[in-house]
Structure formats: C-alpha cells, structure tokens
Amino acid sequence: MDTLNVEITNADFGKIAIKGKAERTLTLNGSLLTNTVSLVIEGEYFTLASESVTPIDGNITDAKIKITYKPIAEGTHTATLKITSDDVDGQTITLTGQAVQQHTVHFFVNGEEDETLAKKVLSGNTLEEIPTATSCDLLNYPTFAGWTSAAIEGTTDVKPTMLDLSTPITSECNYYAVFEKATVGGSSEEQTETHYSTVYHELKIV
Q1: What pLDDT does residue 151 have?
Q2: 170-201 burial string, b = 16+ CB within 10 Å, else e?
Q3: Contact 115, 134 (CB under 8 A)
Q4: Longest dimension (CA), the chain
Q5: Under 8 Å CB-to-CB from 115, ≥6 apart: which residues?
Q6: HEC string for 99-116
C-alpha cells in the first residue's frame, strides 16, 4: 500500500523578534511511490529549503523538510504546508509563529550606562538573569542592592521597588543600580537605619 507521512500535523515556531528567524525540520517517510512528492507552503513568512522530495527505489526514508519562519511584521502568523503526490493522498501541516518587538534593557551604574550589561528581550518576556553592578566593589563602598527603574535624587531611607525575574519587559527601558548603607543612629538606644541611593558616593557621606 502506498504511504506518505509526516509525524506531526502542527508545527509551532514559537515567539521571535520581528525580522528574526526560526527554523524547524520535519521528517517525511513514504513507500511504494513512483512520483516526486511536492511541497508547497500557502501563507506569508514561511519558506521551504526544497520544494520536492524524490523517492529512491519507491521509498522516502527520513527525508528532512527544512522550514524557515522569518517575519517582517508584528503579529501571530499561520501558514499551511501541503505535501502531495500523484501516488497517494497528501498531508497538510499547519505552521504557526508569533513575531514581536525586541526591546533593549539599559543598566546604569553610578549615573552612567554600563553598555556591557545591556540585555535584549522579546516584548512581554522577562529577563533570564539579572546582572550585578561591578563598579561598587572597592573597600568601604556601600553594598549593591539591586536595580530600580528611576534614579534616586540624593539618598532615601525607603527601599525602592527592585527589578526581579518576574518583571515583564514591554518597552525599551532603563534600570539604575541601587546601593545601600546601614548606619547606627538614635539617641536613647542604638538603632540601625538603611539608606539607599543610585549614586554610591552619596552614601559615603551618610
């Protein structure tokens, strides 16, 4: 009996940046075939590396169908891969992918951007890791506490909201290294106070 089969009926290319590229490879098998198998994609942004597969001695064994998704517009995209042959009923594979903006997250240490820390993130995703400010490791300098979305004027004793791995990135944005320093104060008994700043020199005089 003539056969022609791809192991899946849906291929999801995931979420990528606009003008980015994602690839998937499907595996095609067939038997008792005498004619070339035709591959056609209907829809935008998906392309084939080859548009046909030729049987060898009537068989197709683990032939690779390479598909590239390369969107130039934002949105969710769908296309159809049609696999046909004069020998046997064809097969249809649904192709899907999503294209989104890619944003740059900028990090500022002591008032100046550290370009080596910048991260590119797909819109709606979160950071995979949070960098550490490396310019505050000199003796007696305040401690690095995290990153906040707005620079602190002078110092504050209110701990700012910090960036964490659950924070979604939805636009290009800036984060500022926060430094903290504990001081002992109070008149009747010793009391520890913590001060915060995005310029660590401000804390050296606290």
Answers
A1: 95
A2: eeeeebbbbbbbeeeeeeeeeeeeebbbbbbe
A3: no
A4: 97
A5: none
A6: EECEEEEEEEECCEECHH
Instruction: Say which DSSP state 156 is in.
Output: B
Summary mean pLDDT of the chain: 90
Structure tokens that stand for 146 in this block: 């995290």
DSSP 8-state class, residue 117? G
- Report the share of the chain in percent with pLDDT over 90: 73
Residue from 74, 73, 67, 70 nearest 94 by CA: 67
In SS3 terms, 33-53 reads as CCCCEEEEEECCCEEECCCEE
Residue at token pair 């294209």: 99
- For residue 152, the one-letter residue type is I
Among candidate residues 205, 15, 11, the one with its CA nearest the CA of residue 121: 15
List strands edge to edge, sheet with 37-42: 10-17, 88-100, 75-85, 37-42, 52-53
**Distance between CA atoms of residues 138 and 155, nearest Å:** 20
Classify the C-alpha dihedral 191-197-200-202 as positive or negative: negative
CB 37 within 8 A of CB 28: yes
Q: What is the pTM of this model?
A: 0.81
Burial profile 40-56: b = 16 or more Cβ within 10 angstroms, e = fewer: ebeeebbeeeeeebebe
The yes-or-no verdict on residue 124 having pLDDT over 70 is: yes
CA separation for the pair 126, 195 (Å, rounded): 28
The pLDDT, as a whole number, for residue 17 is 98
Q: Tell which residue, 42, 33, 25, 26, has the closest CA to residue 81.
A: 42
